[in-house]
Amino acid sequence: MKKLSFLVLFLFSTLLIAQKFEGLALTPPMGWNSWNRFACDVNEELIRETADAMVSSGMKDAGYQYIVIDDCWQGKRDKDGFIQPDPERFPSGMKALADYIHSKGLKFGMYSDAGWRTCGGRPGSRGYEYQDALTYAKWGVDYLKYDWCNTEDLNAKGAYMTMRNALYAAGHPIVFSLCEWGDNQPWEWAEDVGHLWRTTGDIAAIFDGQEGHGSWNSWGVLQILDMRENIRKYAGPDHWNDPDMMEVGNGMTLVEDRAHFSLWCMLAAPLIAGNDLRDMTPEIKEIMTNKELIAVDQDPLGIQGLKYLVKDDWEVWAKPLDNGELALCFLNRSMKSVKVELDWDEYPVKDDEFQHHYFFNQTEYEIRDLWAKKEIGTTAKPFKTQLESHEVVVLKLSPIK
Ligand code: GLA
Question: Is the full-model pTM beyond 0.90?
Answer without folding.
Answer: yes
